[in-house]
Amino acid sequence: MKKPSNTLRVHVTPTADWKLRSGHPWLYSDSIQKQSRSAEAGELAVVYDRHDNFLAIGLFDPASPLRVRVLHRGKPTVITEDWWLAHFREPIQRRAGLFGADTTGYRYINGESDGWPGFVLDRYGSTLVLKLYSAIWFRRLAEIQQQIQAELNPERLVLRLSRNTQDVARAGFKLSDGQILLGPPIKAAVEFLENDLTFEADVLRGQKTGFFLDQRENRAAVGALAKGRDVLNCFSFSGGFSLYAARSGAKSVTDLDISAHALESSRRNFGLNQRIREVAQCRHDLIQADTFKWMLQNPESRFDLVVLDPPSLAKRENERDGAIQAYGNLAAQGIHRLRPGGILVASSCSAHVSAPEFWEMVRTAARNSRRLFAELQTTTHPADHPATFPEAHYLKTIFLRFEP
After folding, report:
1. Strand order from edge to edge, sheet including 283-288
2. Which residues make up the CATH 3.30.750.80 domain(s) of the chain?
3. How far apart are CA 59 and CA 116, in angstroms?
4. Interhelix angle for 320-336 vs 355-368, to 10°?
5. Cβ-proximal residues to 9 (8 Å cutoff; 6+ apart), any chain
6. CATH homologous superfamily for 8-73?
7. What is the distance between the alpha carbons of residues 131 and 146, in angstroms, rounded to a whole number?
8. pLDDT in tens, 326-381
């Protein structure tokens, strides 16, 4: 492979060599043994092993310990505009056929696991939301916008930025979180369909890109179990699990969340689906409270189905042990709230807690309750949220039914 003098070249340690060859998409700064020159965020970097053999091509970020994010590995290649177009089309084509007309909210590109590191593209009806987790993309944003417009033709494209990128985006590129890159202003909440239920998404300021699209299959599974039951939805956010339960004929649903804003969003989502008789007839209660405190303060409350879907309890590795204990305590409290024959659905979105660790912690809480139970299923990532390396595996859920 020809090596032009201006090409940014980095040589890596044997350990990093092994990790890259095994498919890991990140190269850390302390794994670089030699670098040909200084570079700006978003420049292409060609990565070599200590014997000067080609390993990968990635995007360079001088301000991050995660110094190179891999775009391509294997045989040497030249990154051209045609390459970028084919690279964009690949994950879009992988989603073809996953969803019908009754679902217009899903993920087109899931970061590193789709070959687009630090880059997420979600659909909400005719609005697309691009979330960038690294400054490496800013210098290519105009070209990316053109690709999105040409290939997907959205009515609107919204830019979301992670907190760590916002200062650089503002100062160097005049970009801001919630900026509309394409299309009309947003005058009302963006609406989309999920399995023929209507939801709103706060694409300008909401968490992630505006909604938790990754829980779609788990919401449907809860709906299939909810008929005739009183349901408690803890950390309810905008009421997704509750709305599925209501449509399936739940006797009542109770949303429990510390955020008044989240509860109001749930109320609006129920309002958007009053055309469905079961939703209109289902009692919908809203409780604004910290779930951990509410569980302790209301020991006599009982339900037939309890959903536990907290935010990440371990955002850093040093929080992992405490998170595992907290998940166990939370599961024990949820089990205590179940009537005979009740069902517990427990989720974790903490990447620092593995799926086997989380599931076993919930099972341990179930065994410690001294109640007979059956494990219905465990789930991880849906098809539009693939996870291809260890750090990408964050979502895990377990369903348990307790005997009458």
Report:
1. 283-288, 252-257, 230-234, 303-308, 338-348, 396-402, 373-379
2. 81-190
3. 10
4. 40
5. 3, 35, 36, 45, 46, 48
6. PUA domain (2.30.130.10)
7. 16
8. 999 999 999 999 999 999 999 999 999 999 999 999 999 999 999 999 999 999 99
